[in-house]
Amino acid sequence: MKKLFLPVILISSSIAAQAPAGYYNGTAGLAGYALKSKLHDIIAAKNISWNYSDLQSYYNQTDLDKYYDHTATNTTYLLDIYSEIPSGPDAYEYTSAQMIGSASGEGLGWNREHMMPQSTFYSNYPMYSDLFYVIPTDAFINQRRSNYPYGIVGNTIYHTFSNSSRIGNCAIPGVSYTGRVYEPINEFKGDIARSLLYFAVRYEGKLGAFNFNNDTNPASDSNPLDGTEERSYDPAYIVMLLQWHQQDPVSQREIDRNNSVYAIQNNRNPFIDNPSWVNAIWNQTADAVAPQAPTNLSAIQNSAYFTTLSWPPSTSMDVIGYKIYQNGTLIASTKNTTFTADHLTPSTAYTFTVKAYDNGYFLSPDSNTVSITTLATDTYAKDIMITKYLEGTSNNKGLEITNKTGHAVNLNDYKLSIQLPGSSNYYYPAPYELEGILQDNESAVVLNPNASFSCYTTGQARFVTAAPQMTFSGSQYVELRYKSSSVDAIGIPGTNNSSALGNVSLYRKANVTQPATTFNINEWNSYTTDYCQNLGTLTAAEVDPVQQNEFKVYPNPASDHVFVTGKTENVKSAQILDFSGKLIYSEKNPFINKKAIPVHSLPAGSYLLNLDGKAYPFMKK
Asked: How far is CA 435 from the centre of its chain?
C-alpha cells in the first residue's frame, strides 16, 4: 500500500491535535532557538527511559507494517525503512522474534539501529534506548551503515541494497566531509530528518559534550553535529535535513508511531505534531556582525565552592547566549544573564570573563574581568549527594539526590554508574545521565518504571529509567559521578554489598551535610524493605536553616552596604564576624527602618553576616 501523504500546509493544526491538550503550552509566539529550547523543556520532562533490551518487544507496538504490504491491523511483520519497498513486495520480512546480532547478507534477521550512532553519546542512557531514533532494521544493512551519517550519495557507490537505499561517497552540497554516507530511499527521508531534529531538541544541553570533531579535521569527520546546543548540526547538513523534511511530509505511519512511543516513554516528536516548527527554528538568516561585549560583569555571591556571576543583557538584539571563561578557559555556555561557576577550590583566586554570541555564532569581545577568591569555608555542601537509597521487592528500586550547595545545579554533567559485584574496576556499560536543573534545597527521585511503592509513584519521580543503574539487586556498588569523577557512593567497590544494601531503605542522616566517595553505613538510617516515607521531600531537619529563613544577602562582594531581603522585621540581632570568629560589628533590631547593614568601614576581605544565629558569607570589596 502506498504511504499516505498529508501535505505540510494542511496538517500542522490537525496533527497538533494528536498531542494531549496543553502538552505544548508556552510555545505560542516563539520562534528560532527560543522555540527549540522551550520544546526541549517540554519533551525532556517526565520521560520514561527503558532498558535497551526492552525495545524488542516494544517494536510490536511502534513498528508493525500496517502501511505498505500489510493492510491488516493484526500483522506481526516489522516495518524496516532500510529494506521496505513501497511500490511492491519486500525482498524479505521479519517478526520481532527474528532479532540477531550480526549477518553476512540481507534478509537473515534484524537488529536495533541508532539513527544517530550510539558512539555519538558513548552508548549512555537515556539516549541509548530512545525509541524515536532507535528503530528495527535489517542487521546486514545496519552493519554496513556503521557510523556513517545519512546523506546524499555521489558517483562512487559501495553498496546498493534491496530497496535501492545505498552507501557511497558524500555529495551533500557545502559539506567538507568526503567519506561515506548512507542515503535512504525518498519515501523515508523526511522520517529520518524529523528523527534527527528530534534528537537535537531532546538532548539540547548535552550536545556539546557528545562525540564530534569538526574543529580538527572536517574532511574526515563523519558526525554532522557541530558542538552547538542551539543549531546542533553543521549548517549545510541542516539545509539537507530541511529539504528532506519538505520533500517527504509527515505520514500517517509517523503520526501513529508518535502516539505509540508517547504511550511508552511519555514524550513526543514535536516535528510530527507540528511540522512548521522545523522552519520556524532552523530557517533563520544570521548577520555577519559580532555582538557587543557584555558590560558590568560582577560576582553577586561568593562561597567556598562556587561563585555566582551576573551581567546586564547584551544590547545586541540577535544574541542567543553567553560563553563563560574561567581563568581564560571556556567552561560553559548559558542563555541567562547569571551563571554559577561551581566545583571551585576553597581559598583560591579565580578570574572570570563573559562573551556574548549571536545566532550566526559570532563572538563578542570579552567583558570586563571579575576576580574573586573563594572563601576558606562555608555552610554549604560542596556538591549534590545521594540522600535516600531504596532496594525493595522486585522492581522497587529508587534513589533520591539532593542539592544543598547553596545554588542551583545543572545536572547535565552528572551520571549514575554501578559496578559488577566482585570487580572494583569494571562498571556496567551505559551509565544513566541526569539532566536539567536541580534547585538549591530540592530533591530529585530516580525510580525504576516498574516500581510499585505504596507511598510514591513513578509519576511523582523526576527521573524514571530501566537502565542498569535502576535494576540493582543490593549487591552492586552505586556511584554518583560528575563528569569522570566520583561525587558520592553507596556500597564498597569490589565486594558483594548484599548485607548492607539488600532489601533495605537507607536514609541519609540529617546531620550529614557533605557527599562522600567512601561509603560509611553510620551516615545512614536503615528502614525495612519498600519503606518510602518522605521520598522526594526534605524534612524540616534536612533543610538548610539559612535557606529556610528565606534571607538573601546582596550584593556580594559589597561596597558600602549589605542588603538583606526576606522577613527581616523579626530579626533581633545582626553581627559581622571574620572567619576567625572575631566580632567586628553588632546591631540590635537592625531592620526596623532599613534593609541594609553598613560595611563601608570594613577592610576588603571575607566576612560572615550573622542574623539571629544564622551565618551568611559575603565579601567586602
From this structure: 3
Give tens-digit pLDDT for 190-219: 999 999 999 999 999 999 999 987 656 777
Confidence of residue 61 (pLDDT cuts 50, 70, 90): very high
> Over the stretch 347-387, which tens digit does the pLDDT of each residue have?
999 999 999 999 999 999 999 999 999 999 999 999 999 99
The alpha carbons of the chain give a radius of gyration, in whole angstroms, of 27
Burial of 39 (0-12, 13-18, 19+ CB in 10 A): buried
Grid coordinates in use for 242?
530541511
pLDDT at 607: 81
Nearest to 380 by CA among 294, 301, 453, 491: 301
Burial (0-12, 13-18, 19+ Cβ within 10 Å), 256: middle
The DSSP bridge pattern shows strands 463-465 and 48-49 to be parallel
Residue 326, classed as helix, strand or coil, is strand
pLDDT digits (tens, 9 = 90+) for 334-347: 999 999 999 999 99
Note the pLDDT tens digit of each residue in 115-170.
999 999 999 999 999 999 999 999 999 999 999 999 999 999 999 999 999 999 99
Angle at 31 between CA 27 and CA 34, to 5 degrees: 75
Distance (Å, whole) CA 516 – CA 489: 6
Res 551 pLDDT > 90: no
Neighbour count for residue 620 (Cβ, 10 Å): 19
Q: What mean pLDDT comes out for the span 467-487?
A: 94
Single out the residue of 214, 252, 230, 221 nearest to residue 73, CA to CA: 252
pTM for the complete prediction? 0.86
* Cell numbers linked to 314: 547584551
Q: How far apart are CA 417 and CA 478, in angstroms?
A: 6
Q: What share of the chain is helix, strand, coil (3-state, %, to 5)?
A: 20, 30, 50
Which residue is it, cell 503520526? 255
- CB contact set of 593 (below 8 Å; sequence gap of 6+): none
Q: Cα(118)–Cα(136) distance, rounded to whole angstroms?
A: 15
CA distance 47 to 33: 22
Contacts of 418 (CB under 8 A, 6+ apart): 427, 428, 468, 469, 472, 476, 477, 478, 479
- Given this model, what pLDDT does residue 350 score? 98
The C-alpha cell that represents 134 in the structure block: 532507535
Q: Is the pLDDT of residue 2 over 70?
A: no
Report the C-alpha gap between 317 and 255 in whole angstroms: 37
Give residues with Cβ within 8 angstroms of 97, minimum separation 6: none
**DSSP code of residue 359:** T
What the chain holds in terms of domains, given with CATH numbers, is 8-282 (no CATH), 298-373 (2.60.40.10), 385-527 (2.60.40.1260), 549-620 (2.60.40.10)
| Residue 310 DSSP symbol | E
Q: Which residues contact 125 (CB under 8 A, 6 or more apart)?
A: 49, 430, 431, 432, 433, 465, 467, 469
